Amino acid sequence: MNYGLRSSRSNFGLIIPLPDPIDDSVDSNQLLKGERVRMRLRITVLLCCMVISTLASAQSSDIPITVNFNSDLGPMNIDRFSLGQGGLSPEPMFADRTAEIRALKPRVIRLFVQEYFNLLPTSGVYQFKTLDASVDAVVRAGATPLLCIVFKPRKLFPRRDQESVEPTSWKEWEALMHAVVSHYERRNGRGWYWEVGNEWDLQSGGGTPYHMTPEQYTRFYEHTVTAIRRADPKARVGGPGQAFISAPLIPALLEFCDKNTIPLDFISWHGYQNDPQWFRHSIDSMHLLLREHPKLHPQTVIDEWNMDPSQEDVDPRLQPVFIAETTFQMIESGLDLSCYFQIRDYPFDDDAFKAFYPLQDVAEQERFWDRHLVQFGLFDFQNQVRPAYFVFKLLERLTGDRIALESGSDTVHGLATHDNALGVSSILLWNYSEKEVDVSVHLHNIPTQTMASRYVLDATGPNNGEAARLRPQPTQTLSSGDGNLYFRLAPWGITLVSLEKR
Q1: At what angle do helices 276-290 and 318-332 cross, to 10 degrees?
Q2: What distance in Å separates the CA atoms of residue 120 and residue 126, rounded to the nearest whole number?
Q3: Which residue among 283, 341, 382, 468 is least crowded, i.e. fewest CB within 10 A of its CB?
Q4: Lowest mean pLDDT across 92-96, 161-165, 259-263, 400-404
Q5: The pTM of the whole model exceeds 0.70
Q6: Do 370 and 347 meet the contact criterion of CB atoms below 8 Å apart?
Q7: What are the C-alpha distances in Å from 86 to residues 114, 266, 286, 309, 340?
Q8: Given the DSSP bridges, would you call strands 470-472 and 450-457 parallel, antiparallel or unpaired?
Q9: What whole-number distance in Å separates Cα of residue 491 and Cα of residue 430?
Q10: What are phi and psi for residue 112, nearest 5 degrees?
């Protein structure tokens, strides 16, 4: 390492002591020779002191990270930070990427049950073939479906209007919901998540043809979950997939279910914000709200989240580190489940939407999805993998139990786990800052001699291959007990350290 040392008086500020007055009884050549030796020794000592001081200063400026292998914090359950797919087309949008998605091991995948699946082509006749294809993709990806109910059959909602939110017959609506859930209960098994609604606090339901008041929503919720639970008593029901954290639907739903003993397994909301702290604050606010209803114990679920879509010129390194930092904030604040939006960016099927969605809203959705730069997906419109995929690949490696990791910085955070079954410990670190930093990782109570392998996420290179995106670094052997690792984190940088028994 070059510390920028140069042997000049102006840089070091050295003041070289003058020699003592010359003693006439001493040979002048011998005296000068001795003084030169002493002078060299003084300069050497001063230089050594400065190098040691510089080294100490450099080390003290490192950000300290402490990992204690004896501090078991319980299961990490990293699979709860899962995925979702937008409702853009009746096609199974990620069916040819199920192997790559399965490698991320998401616990759930959220899918919109939209009207383009045509579940009720005519009264009393149900059709599941189109929806089956998308559901099968979720199941092949190894996830439990979280199905978001947003469809609006023309037979029960003859008027194409976002304010027309109640079916002409609640009996027929409940029969339809019972048929849908029964179909998948018989076909695939019990216990799926069923979410009632998506952003119905917004005009046109954030892409679905509903806009509800709290009173309308709670009535709709009651009829819907009654039918769901009749078909599958183990089904997990909840909602409302609220767009704004301050909207009234969640408070109304909690009050209604508390008062009327209506099933409520989870409450859900969304966030598209650039500040990871926003997500933490939203979770904290939901926990405060739940304290007002001690009889209820719903899971907290953010089942759509990403950066603000209005930003188009974004550093490619930012989205991966945003995912890492936001996931960290979700963990720290005790969120139960999340679904990153989304798996794949996909062309908006305007023809499919025109059959049931107000035409002015179809145009708005088409402008957004097909006329703007959209960078939500782990896979882009051409089905090419994005760097964001690989941060989920690194998060997936945080298996086993969480162990304590402490950082001396507000911008460098991390997560650490030990997996007894695999015999592997994993440390994920990231720099949520535009400045590069040096870190000193102090490992305490390493159980055995290990090989430390480190990988750096490269979000800027042209090659999308895993070996190019997750670049391996030189390995290091660590003895049992305590050890240290030193490295530099680039701006918005992410690195994973994997420790395996040697």
Answers
A1: 20
A2: 5
A3: 382
A4: 161-165
A5: yes
A6: yes
A7: 10, 20, 24, 14, 10
A8: antiparallel
A9: 9
A10: -80, 130
Using a pLDDT cut of 70, give the percent of the chain over it.
88
Would you say 67 and 444 are in contact if contact means Cβ atoms under 8 Å apart?
A: yes
Q: Which two tokens stand for residue 16?
A: 């070289």
CB 268 within 8 A of CB 240: yes
Q: Which amino acid appears at position 59 of this protein?
A: Q
pLDDT tens by residue, 223-239: 999 999 999 999 999 99
Judged by phi (left if over 0) then psi (alpha if -120 to 50, else beta), residue 492 lies in: left
The single-letter code of the amino acid at 419 is: D
Q: Are 232 and 264 in contact (CB under 8 A)?
A: no
Write out the DSSP string of 120-186: -SBTTB---HHHHHHHHHHHHTT-EEEEEE----TTT--S--TT--S-S-HHHHHHHHHHHHHHHHH
Coil vs helix vs strand at 446? strand
**The dihedral of CA 325, 327, 328, 330: what is its sign?**
positive
Length of the chain equals 502
User: Which stretches does DSSP call E strand in 12-115?
Assistant: 63-75, 81-85, 108-113
Does the pLDDT at position 189 exceed 80? yes
> Strands 236-242 and 193-196: what pairing?
parallel
Chain centre to alpha carbon of residue 95: 22
Report the pLDDT value the prediction gives residue 205, as an integer from 0 to 100.
Answer: 77
Q: What are phi and psi of 120, to 5 degrees?
A: -125, 80
10 Å CB burial of residue 467 (0-12, 13-18, 19+) is: exposed
Q: According to DSSP H, which parts of 165-246 are helical?
A: 170-187, 214-231
